[in-house]
Design goal:
The protein is of the alpha/beta class. It has 3 domains: 225 residues, 3-Layer(aba) Sandwich (Rossmann fold), CATH 3.40.50; 185 residues, no CATH class; 72 residues, no CATH class. Helices cover 49% and strands 17% of the residues.
Length: 603
């Protein structure tokens, strides 16, 4: 990674923290610190709500009131806003999202939100959430800051450190340690100091240094204390609640706003930690996961091509075929798999058990325009977490930017046509072309064998290197395609069953090989060596080198990565609105300009 050049056109900040640390409030408050100079200005203005949330607050008479605030993208006239929050709460623990603040000169600050650590459903969900986090950050070129949000009085940091630091550094280059900062929330009660968490934090960091020789700095530059209660106060005031102790909240606003600007000032001066194109375990896992589904499509496409060629062979071999008819069949058919880019994204159901959508590309909500909000909260088209169109769970839906398309072509052999025109024996012509068709079939079978062997290596790699319990997505999607083929077979008299039989044979052999691998892994005698990260990237390149197939796979990979951008929510900020922010953005602008002349490097 040494000497790699990183363009500094964006500031990317990753937010990590335990459940309940206040990440949502932190992000909402951040937006309003950008917009307003003071709490008084915010009360007079229009509050910015980027993440819908619900909380309970007590007024001066000690009466409790539930405050519900809904972001613009989550707002839906057909649903009660409390139902909206319930849906949001369920999905937000599973998904990452990004909040993009557009500064002057088209430069941006991006806060990357992640699921909370310490999921009440157990450690397995923490593992899944962390894997989602790795997938999310994999789309960005670099990270400028990694903010770990902590409560000021937390004597137990084991789980947080496992996933915030130990797991993170095991998947990123160790230089990421220089981009880590600690943000303490709810600190008014500890006089805007880290509280009892600080000594525990120092012990944990010393332990990491002792075990892995990685020193993570803990000093004023890397410690930031907030209390974003002033945002909740602001939301409550907008709901009509009255308070006599506004000064307390005004102080919280002032201190937290200043701390936000100090945090930004530090992060924009940090050397960016480069993420893109690193040969890492995370990247290898992600590319395998992306390629699984298109590889099933390729497998079906090969079966379809073989079926068409075999059918053509039989037609040519007929004894009663005329010369004219023979001439019309002297071609090599080619069904090419391509992607068709959509004019605008569609939201589709990806559940393999969906009964309404016969094909994964059929849209549940083609007219729905708030795609960013859907990808972030999956709301507005859901009732209690279920799709209004197909009935499947919200988590089974995704945005797609493309659809698969098959293009059919015929490649005629001019040499054979010349032979016929010279009145050569038709039997010779027939055999010559049959040989060429068989040659094409043999080539397709070689490609299929290559793909099948690579898929098995991919599966073994995931089985031995996954963070979570292994879930065989390749087998799942292959079963789905087989089920669709069976429906087509039952509904169409002219359906060529060789396609279905070929897919079923592929699944049978795949299951047998996976079973054998599992047995070897479990026995451990002798230990089964996992494919290396380098092996995986070499195998991926082999796939990319396959004629036609390789281009399709590369196109799919590119478009799949783009879909993650639809989890971003954008927010315009102006340095003219906020005096403190103006100073920070002036520094940011200088850094951007200097980056044109001086490469930013990761050591």
């Amino acid at each position: 990674m040494a000497g790699s050049v990183v363009p500094r056109e964006e500031i990317n900040i990753l937010l990590l923290g335990e459940t309940g640390a206040g990440k949502s409030t932190f992000i909402n408050a951040f937006a309003n610190y950008f917009k307003f100079n003071s709490l008084g200005d915010a009360i007079s203005g229009e509050v910015e709500v980027l993440i819908s949330c619900k909380f309970t607050i007590t007024n001066d008479d000690y009466e409790m009131k539930t405050i519900t605030i809904v972001s613009e993208d989550d707002d839906n006239e057909d649903e009660d806003k409390n139902d909206v929050i319930d849906n949001v709460g369920e999905s937000s623990t599973q998904e990452c999202g990004a909040y993009v603040f557009h500064a002057d000169e088209n430069k941006i600050i991006r806060l990357i939100d992640t699921p909370g650590i310490g999921d009440t459903r157990g450690i397995e969900y923490d593992k899944k959430n962390f894997e989602n986090t790795l997938k999310c950050i994999n789309q960005y070129d670099y990270l400028n800051g990694i903010c770990i949000l902590l409560k000021p009085n937390n004597a137990r940091l084991n789980i947080i450190f496992k996933y915030c630091i130990q797991e993170l550094l095991s998947h990123l280059h160790k230089s990421a340690k220089d981009n880590i900062v600690f943000c303490f929330t709810n600190t008014r009660g500890t006089f805007f100091r880290p509280g009892d968490t600080l000594p525990v934090l120092k012990r944990q960091l010393n332990e990491i240094q002792k075990n892995s020789d990685i020193e993570i700095r803990i000093c004023k530059d890397t410690i930031y204390c907030f209390d974003n209660e002033s945002f909740r106060f602001l939301a409550a005031v907008k709901e009509g609640m009255a308070f006599t102790d506004k000064e307390i909240f005004a102080v919280s606003w002032e201190k937290s706003s200043e701390e936000s600007m100090r945090l930004l000032q530090y992060i924009i001066n940090c050397t960016p930690h480069k993420l893109i194109d690193t040969i890492s375990l995370n990247n290898a896992r992600q590319i395998v996961a992306i390629l699984y589904k298109p590889l099933v499509e390729v497998n079906r496409n090969i079966q379809e091509n073989i079926s068409h060629i075999e059918k053509l062979k039989k037609e040519i071999q007929r004894t009663d075929i005329s010369i004219e008819e023979l001439k019309s069949k002297l071609y090599i058919p080619d069904i090419k798999l391509e992607i068709k880019l959509l004019d605008r994204p569609k939201v589709v159901c990806t559940s393999s058990n969906c009964q309404k959508c016969d094909k994964i590309a059929e849209s549940c909500h083609i007219k729905w325009k708030k795609l960013n909000a859907f990808m972030q909260k999956r709301n507005g088209v859901m009732i209690f977490g279920k799709c209004k169109s197909c009935g499947c769970h919200a988590k089974k839906h995704k945005a797609i930017l493309y659809e698969n398309r098959s293009s059919y072509s015929k490649k005629f052999d001019k040499h054979i046509e010349n032979i016929i025109s010279e009145n050569k024996l038709d039997q010779f012509v027939k055999q010559n072309h049959i040989d060429k068709l068989q040659e094409k079939i043999d080539q397709l079978k070689v490609h299929k064998n290559t793909i099948d062997n690579i898929v098995i290596k991919f599966t073994q790699f995931l089985m031995q290197n996954t963070i979570t319990t292994f879930n065989d997505k390749y087998a799942e999607y292959l079963d789905y395609i087989i089920r669709l083929e069976k429906r087509t077979f039952d509904a169409t008299k002219s359906y060529n069953k060789e396609i279905l039989e070929g897919l079923e044979e592929t699944k049978k052999k795949y299951d047998e090989k996976v079973k054998a691998i599992k047995k070897k892994i479990e026995s451990g005698d002798p230990p089964l060596c996992s494919p290396s990260i380098e092996d995986i990237f070499y195998l991926v390149q082999q796939l990319y080198d396959l004629p036609n197939i390789g281009q399709y796979l590369q196109d799919v990979k590119q478009e799949e990565k783009k879909t993650l951008k639809y989890r971003e929510k954008h927010f315009e900020i102006s340095k003219n609105q906020n005096i403190k922010l103006s100073k920070v953005l002036n520094t940011l602008t200088k850094i951007f300009k200097n980056a044109v002349h001086n490469d930013c490097r990761v050591e």
